[in-house]
Structure formats: structure tokens, C-alpha cells
Amino acid sequence: MLISRLLIVLAASCVMIETATAQQYVDLLKDKSLSQWMLPNGEDVASGWTFDADGTLHLSGKGDNIITREDFGDFDLWFEYRISAKGNSGIKYRVQKYGNSWLGCEYQIQDDAAFPNLSAEHYTASLYDLFDITSPVLKRNYLNADQFSVGRIVVQNHRIRHWMNGNLIIDERDDSQRFTDAVTNSKFKNQEGFGKNQSGKLMLTDHGSEVWYRNVYIRRLDGRPAVR
């Protein structure tokens, strides 16, 4: 049943990808290239992040976090991802520099079953360390390691949403008291204004685990009608 649901979601994502040009999506892995990405120090990506024969971006070994060369404000990001057994990674967005660290809100990616004692705001597709998966049913549906899942992040008009395999996981507002309280109670409490900035870079994190990405498409939503 899980495989059938995943195939349906993957089919839907393929339709989205085929119409990406018409909808003004940008392929962030176009031509199996990392030309749109760089290391946080501004240098080109030289190791760790490579492309498999089928065009999938694969982090194996030390590659460091990588960030987009461009900043994004409101956006709609689609991607497919796979994490290794006992692995931990994530996609950060609206990333900016806080002191010596590049930080931003994060779509968590990990082998959930390998970390049964973590709190729910660390499950895959959670808004890392801030908000957990709100559905009791979804809390029991761990991400399966070594199997591709479909993710989506929409940030628009202060509203933040995360999806996993077609399921809406997170729906929060960064201008709410609830968001402010969540930051205050998180590891980011000493980072002034964390998560409130309205633009920043995307980041693919290196937490020492193998991770794979493919079909990574983004479109800008600044000034556009609200996305459902």
C-alpha cells in the first residue's frame, strides 16, 4: 500500500516536472551541474557532492554544506530525496549568516526509525526543532531509508508549509506568536530574528550521512497569487 501511494505521488511529481518550464520552475540540478550552488565560503563545490549515472545528486564522503548562489524570498520548491540507513540530513531555506554560522529553517530528513527516542519536531518533514508533525497518523508513518520520497516546501506571505509524499506535514506562520515561542524554546533562541528574515539561500546539509536528491525544482512566488 505504501509503495502504491508513493508511485501515485511520484507520477504527480513527474507531471509537475514536465510542465516546469510553463510554470517558470528552475531546475537547480540542470545538466547534472552544481553551477547554481557553492560552498558557504563562496568557493565552487569540489568534493563529496557528485552525480550518479542517472543524474541523481549524491553526497558520499565529506562534502560540506552547499548553498545556492541566489537568494530566494517566497518560493515553491519540489524535490525527491533518499537518506541512507541511520542517516541524517535536511534542506534549509532563507539561510543567512548568524555570526560564524549559516542558519535557516529546515525541512528535516532522516531515517526516522533509527531514532525512535527523538521528539516529533525532529521527524522527517518537520520544521526542524520548531514544529512537529501535527497528524497522529502521520507520526507513525516513518520515512523509509533507502527509498525515494517526494518533498515540497512552499513559503509565501509569512506562511510556511512542508509536504511529504503528498501529505501536508507543516502549516505555520513566521509572523505568529506561536512561531516566536517555538524559536524561544529551540536551539536557535540566542539567534536574534531567527526565521523572521524574508529571503535567503537554500542549503543542502552535510551531517556526515549519505543522501541523494533528484528533480529539484523551484519557482519564485514573490508578488504572485497565493498558492494552494
Can you walk through the features of this model?
The protein has 228 residues and is mainly beta. The chain has a single domain (2-220), classed as Exo-inulinase, domain 1 (Jelly Rolls, Sandwich). It is built from 2 helices and 13 strands, in the order H-E-E-E-E-E-E-E-E-E-E-E-H-E-E. The strands form 2 sheets. Strands 1, 3, 4, 6, 9, 10, 11 and 13 form an 8-stranded antiparallel β-sheet that branches. Strands 2-5-12-7-8 form a 5-stranded antiparallel β-sheet, with no helix packed on it. It starts with a helix and ends in an 8-residue tail after the last strand.
Briefly summarize what is shown:
This protein has 228 residues and is mainly beta.
What is this structure's SSE topology?
Layout: H1 2-18, E1 26-27, E2 37-38, E3 49-51, E4 57-59, E5 66-68, E6 75-83, E7 88-98, E8 101-110, E9 149-156, E10 159-164, E11 167-173, H2 177-184, E12 201-204, E13 211-220
Antiparallel strand pairs: 1-13, 2-5, 3-4, 4-13, 5-12, 6-9, 6-13, 7-8, 7-12, 9-10, 10-11
